[in-house]
Amino acid sequence: MALRELELVTIEEQTQDRLTNRQSQASFKGSTSLPQDYGLKDPKITSPGMLIMGEKDYVMKIPGMDEYIRSERVKDFMPNLEIIFHEEGNHFVQEQLPEEVNQQLITFLNKHST
């Protein structure tokens, strides 16, 4: 394993441990609860968006997050969101698979440019 890969794995593990410890008593509720009303009755982002994640991303271990994203409930708030999972990717998927992620971004931007 290359030094850079080892550094990423170590950072990933440390971050995952801290996140898991903090979230052990909590669960993800989604973005439906705003700290204040702000006059928003039905908050939605209607612009096209793209979420690129690794299947091994520690964020998916936050209680409720995996179901929230995979069930596409997140699209209740961002209906034009394209979700892509990379099987071997973790939280640093853009560094692990730069060619694939860059191609997906270019394709997305070309598809949505005017």
Question: How would you describe this structure to a colleague?
Answer:
- The protein is of the alpha+beta class and 114 residues long.
- 40% of the residues lie in helices and 11% in strands.
- A two-stranded parallel ribbon has the order 1-2.
- It is flat, with a radius of gyration of 16 Å.
- 6% of the residues are buried.
- The model has no long low-confidence stretch (mean pLDDT 79).
What structural keywords apply?
11% strand; alpha+beta; two-stranded parallel sheet; 114 residues
Shape by Cα distribution: flat
The H/E string reads: HEHEHH
- How many beta strands in the DSSP annotation? 2
SS-derived structural category: alpha+beta
Helix content percent band: 40-55%
Distinct helical segment count: 4
Largest sheet, described in full? 2 strands, parallel
Average of the residue pLDDT scores: 79
Question: pLDDT under 50 segments (min length 5)?
Answer: none
Gyration radius from CA atoms, angstroms? 16 Å
Gap between N and C termini: 43 Å
Q: Beta-strand level of the residues, as a percent range?
A: 5-15%
Oligomerization? single chain
Strands across the major sheet, in which order?
A: 1-2
